[in-house]
Queue: 2 jobs
Job 1
Amino acid sequence: MRITGAVLERCGAPAPYAESRPVTVGPLELDPPGDGEVLVRIEAAGLCHSDLSVVDGNRARPVPMLLGHEAAGVVEATGPGARLAVGQRVVMTFLPRCGQCAQCATDGRLPCAVGSAANAAGTLVGGGRRLRRAVPAGSGEAQEVHHHLGVSAFASHAVVSETSVVPVDHDVPPDIAALLGCAVLTGGGAVVNAGRPAPGDRVAVVGLGGVGMAALLVAVALGHEVVGVDAVPAKLDLARELGATLAVGPQEAADQGLRAPVVIEAAGSARAFETAYAVTAPGGTTVTVGLPHPDARASISPLSLTAEARTVVGSYLGSAVPSRDIPRYVELWRAGRLPLERLVSDRITLDDLPAALDRLASGAALRQLVMF
Ligand SMILES: [Zn+2]
Ligand SMILES: [Zn+2]
C-alpha cells in the first residue's frame, strides 16, 4: 500500500536540521504484514533523543531509514498467525521480544538478542524489510528503506512484528499510549526494575528530558521523595511542578553535597554520568539509561565503589518486560497518579520534524508528538 513517511537520508548532517534537512517526507510503499505481523495505522509518535542520535550520527544506523520508535496506533490488518484483532489499539515498543532466546529469559535484564540483531540491521525481527521508495511504474527497482528499531512510526502506517507491540484499551488516548512505549518504559523501568528503591527512599534523576521526566513522574507516583538535576532552568521549574521536592543544576547539586540512594542518569553524556555517580549515596545504586557516543569515557573513583559498597547498573529499555510493565503504568495513569500529558511540549506534523529535531537538540523540548 502507499503510505506517507519521514525518511532519514543520511547520518551526521550538520545542525540546524531545518536548514540541512536530512529528513524527507514523501510517499513510500509498505508491504502487507507477514507471519506474526500487523499493519498499524499510526495515531501519535514521539520524537525521542534516540531518533536525534541517529540523525546527528552519535548512533549511526543504516540509511535510508524511516525513523520513529515511540508510538501508538490501531491495528488495521493482521498477517498469518497474528493473534491481535483488527481495531485493537497498541503501544509500539522499540525492542521486539522473541520470547525464545536466553536473554529473553532474564526477566528484562538483558535485551532480546534476536530483536537487537534485527534492530542493528534495520530489519523486522521476522527478517527483511517491508518498506520501499515509491517509484513510478517502469522506472526500475524500488530502493528498500530500513526500519528503525522494528517500528518506523514517523509514517501514516507501519508493519511491525506482534512482538513489538502491547495492546492497550481505548480509554488510553493515543498521545498517552505513545509515551508508554519509550519514555515511560525506559524512565519508569530505570526506577522500578533497575534502581529498585526501598519504600520512602529518595530518588534523584539527572537529565530531565522525556525519559528523565518520566522517571521522575513514576518515582513521585510511587511515593518517593524525588530530586531533579538538569542544567536547563525551565526543566527544573517543571520538575518542581511535577512533584520534585528539590530541583537543582549539576554544580548546585555538588555544592550542596546532594546524595540519594537511587540515582537515574537519563541525559546520555559522560558528564551526566559522573554527576549521577557523584550524587549516589554510600550503599546506593547509580542507574544509567543514557546512550552517549560510543567513544565517550567517564571518570569515577573505583575506591568509592568498594569503600562505599556502591552499585552501577546499565539499563536498556528500562530493563522492562513491556507486556508486564505497560499495564502497570496504565493503572497508575488511570488512578490519576501519572500525569503523562505533562510530558508533551509540542504537537507537530511530519513536515515539522527538522525544526523539532533542532528544538530537541537545544534542550528546549520535552516530548514532541507527531499527531496523525
Ligand atoms: Zn526513545
Ligand atoms: Zn529474545
Note: Residues 97-98, 100-101, 103-104, 112-115 surround zinc ion (ligand 2) (CB under 6 Å).
Job 2
Amino acid sequence: MVRRELATPIQFSLDIDPILEANCSVCHSGLFTYQNVTNNYIDAGDPSNSLILLKPSGGVGHGGGTFESWKVGTQNYRFLLDWISEGAEP
Ligand code: HEC
C-alpha cells in the first residue's frame, strides 16, 4: 500500500493527504488541510496523543466510530505516528 524511501521523511502532501482523503473525507471533506492538521490535530511533543490518531483508533470517543484499520499498531496508525514523529513535514 504505502511505499517510501527510508531516508526520506514522510510528507503530508505525498503520503498523508491521500490516506486522509481515502479514509476520512466522506465525513470530513476539506477539514484535514496541512495547516489545520498541524495547528489543531497533532501533538508534536507527544505524537500518540494527537487527536488525529486518538479519534479513529478509539483512544477517545469519535462521532465516526472506531475503525479496525486505524487501531494502535495498524499500518495507518504507525504511518501517521511516524509522520508526526519525523516533524510533520508538508
Ligand atoms: C462516518 C463519519 C466519519 C468518518 C469516516 C470519520 N469521522 Fe472523524 N468525526 C466524525 C464526527 C461526526 C465528528 C464530530 C464528533 C467528534 O468530535 O467525535 C468527528 C470528529 C473528528 C475529529 C475532531 C474534530 C474537531 O475539530 O474536534 C477528528 C480529529 C477526527 N474526527 C478524525 C478523523 C479521522 C482521522 C478520520 C479518518 C481516519 C475520521 N475522523 C473519519 C465522523 C467521522
Note: Residues 12-28 form the longest helix (17 residues).
